[in-house]
Amino acid sequence: MKKLLKSNSSLIIPLVLLVISVLYFSRLFYPTLSVFTTPDFGLSEPFAYTYPMKKLLVESYANGTVPLWSPYFGSGSPIYSEGYYFLFNQILFRLFDTIAAINLSFIVSFFIASFGSYLFLRQQKLSRLASAYGGLTFAFSGPLVMQITHFSVVQSIAILPWLLVFVHEFIKGGRLLVWLFLVVIVSQQIFLGFPQVVLISMFVALGYATYLNLYSKKFFLLIKIIAAFALGAVLSSVQLLPSIELLNFSNRQGGLGNSATAFSYPWIHLKTLLWPFSLGDPRLGTYPFFANFDGSIFWENTGYIGAFSLALAIFGAIYRPMRQKANFFIILAVMSLLLMTGKHSPLYFLFNFPPFDFFRVPSRFIILFVFALSTLAGFGLDHLIALLSSHLSKTRLQYFSLFITGLSFCQLFFFSFNYHPVGPAKVWLPSRSHVASLKQTTARYLTYGAGEVWNREYNQSGWKEMDHYRLLLNFMQPNFNLWYKFASFDFYHALPTRRQLLLDSLVKSGIRQSNNSIEITGQSRKLLALYSVDTILASSPVSGAKIEKIPLYGDNELIISKLDSLPEARLVYEVKIAHSIDQLLKLIGETNLEKTAIVEEFLFINQNQNNKGIVKEISHKDQSALFEVETSAQTLLVWNQSFYPGWQATINGKKAEIIPANINSQAILLPKGQSKVEFQYQPKSFALGARISLISHLIVLSVMFLGLFQARAAFFSKYLPLSRRQNKLHKDR
Description:
By secondary structure, the chain is α+β, with helices and mostly antiparallel strands. The protein has 25 helices and 22 strands. Helix 6 (about 130-140) packs parallel to helix 17 and helix 21 packs across helix 22 (about 520-530). The chain starts with a helix and ends with a helix.
């Protein structure tokens, strides 16, 4: 690695790569602080996830807390995968506000991706120009540029080349210090919270290590590479253990089955390698709706690297004198193509087995396909320069090489720079709520039908009228509500719990829109009231509700309908038991849920609905709540925060058992009289993971420090004259 960096002509290449990244994202800072506003199907990913979740990260850093639970989507949900422990997030989101930190992170991520790819290509013995060209081609290719709206995906992809750099260094040298750096990089990628990209990275890293071992015959090094990934997982236990716990309570516990091949790459999409808009342009509303295009999504399937780069990649693959060097990347391109085509591929059966069946969107293997093409493009440029070196003078060859490089990159830069729209942050993310008249009297609201209005705009006009999308944000689709700390009954979550999914499906199954009005059945009304939903945001009014209309644009209106609802915490003096979903559905239909709770196991209680009591909320934070209760008899306190392991309750300081009630609520049995009840989210999985991560980091970082110290000592003993060393030792004495 030291020789590799030394050969870079000082810092010229990394400086150029950094300057290009800064220039590319400069519009996010000048003339005013701006945000990406790119629409997706049904919502805008930056507003639905990136901006609100990273705002939560900034607030957590400021408060010195770790974000573990959010009460603002669904009926409360655990949150672990927001890049809290990633090194650059620790720095940027502590020093800057949310938008500035996100924008700076884009610069850092694209620089990391381009510089890491550059170093990897230098390891393949390519020239500096060809290596820089390949690095820039990968960093500004379709997969990274299209995923700008998916912040964590971009950060995760940027780590990929560095994994290969250290795998290469370790296989070639077998040094412990390099292996430890690999371990740390693995853990950092896991911390970013996008496990599918980690799986993709492991696939190529292990494949590359195996390929190198075919020549070195040091197969024990391959075992050490596997061990590096395992130890990297140990370092990230603080995030992995709670995430595994959540997985076990989600609908992905046993894999996704046939859904694992959803959003596979169609073979016809290969024509977009020549021109990305050959099948339609989302900006103009001409790209087919994914439901009518076999699940194809533009930003998942675009692998454009530029026509010149594609030609160079083909040349790099077929140029016989250098074929042996390019073999791995040819194999990688073919394998990743077969994987990303998913259900259309002869390898479709792999998605029936772990770990492939835990994820949707096989087309994300396009990351490896484009990485292979970008690398082959670097090979192609290097080979072309070598062929022309005997026909052109050195000066002309340099000018020609720079011209080809500049022309190729400008073609890619023009496409990627003009795809994502931006808007002033102060316009798109005001400090107060978009819905100024939305005043919550209880806990939650529900958005209904906003996706249809959004998609109508998206499919007809693309993003010609960006101000329309800004106005449609008034529907406060999740998780945009997190930005304003409004609690939504809806959720936008990769791993919702099975209880949350059941509750959501029962509610949504009883809501119908017809004749410009929304009808809500009795069962759905009961459940909405039970979970303190007193407001419906929609484009049509709810029948029988008090409404308020807010004009948006054209004929589109936001209609706020007010419903009756129950308090977030209440006392009940009667329980009914449901041992199955069928029993549950029957009891919901015939039970007065205001006075009765439905539980799942026998519970002894002196049932009498004439008893009375009062609940007073003292405090309610994201991960805790405190209530004062006074009751005339033994009672059940039902709190409509999601039932999930890690929640603990005390009654007057003594531990109490929490039981599930009403599908997804927490309940505890209270004695007669006055009680102070406290709920706290303190998951054991997080506590155990934190201890494991802390101890393993201390060990790994200590060994790395000793290794660096010894390397420095060896350097000075080799290059510092003996007399000076002796003089220094004499002075120290």
